[in-house]
Design goal:
Largest sheet: 2 strands, antiparallel
Number of strands: 2
Oligomer: single chain
Structural class: mainly alpha
Strand order of the largest sheet: 1-2
Order of helices and strands: EEHHHH
Shape: elongated
Strand content: 5-15%
Radius of gyration: 17 Å
Length: about 140
């Protein structure tokens, strides 16, 4: 954000776009510690919910801002975080490949390496909660 790149920037937030068929894409922020944006998780919970889960969410909370802020079901939660991890893994792989291909462009290589590291921290943070998660 400030015109320079640091591999250990404690303020580095990486953005990803998660695309879903038949639904709007979801912007996902990954923070330096690997935590992910809770509003993006809520949107994914809603988008991946079955009709029964949507009905259950409607009955437990009518406030659109908080309706999907907590887990709907084990199935939904695993689907959400599996999708997030898969997207983060793809993004980390792309960033690592780009860093390797950057050659002598140190600015690009440093940025992409730091991006890959942040995305991997996101995966690691999710796997702390779901150690057996498949993605």
């Amino acid at each position: 954000d400030y015109g320079f790149v640091s591999s250990d920037n404690p303020c580095n937030i990486e953005m990803m776009e998660i695309r879903l068929l038949g639904s709007p894409s979801v912007a996902l922020a990954v923070y330096p510690d690997g935590s992910i944006d809770k509003s993006a998780v809520a949107m994914l919970r809603q988008n991946l919910a079955t009709p029964e889960e949507l009905e259950m969410a409607q009955s437990r909370d009518r406030n659109i801002l908080t309706k999907f802020s907590s887990q709907l079901s084990d199935r939904n939660e695993l689907d959400v975080f599996s999708l997030v991890c898969s997207s983060l893994d793809d993004g980390a792989h792309t960033a690592s490949s780009g860093a390797a291909e950057a050659g002598s462009d140190q600015l690009v290589a440093t940025y992409l390496s730091a991006r890959a590291a942040t995305l991997r921290r996101g995966i690691a943070k999710i796997l702390e909660q779901f150690p057996d998660l498949e993605y």
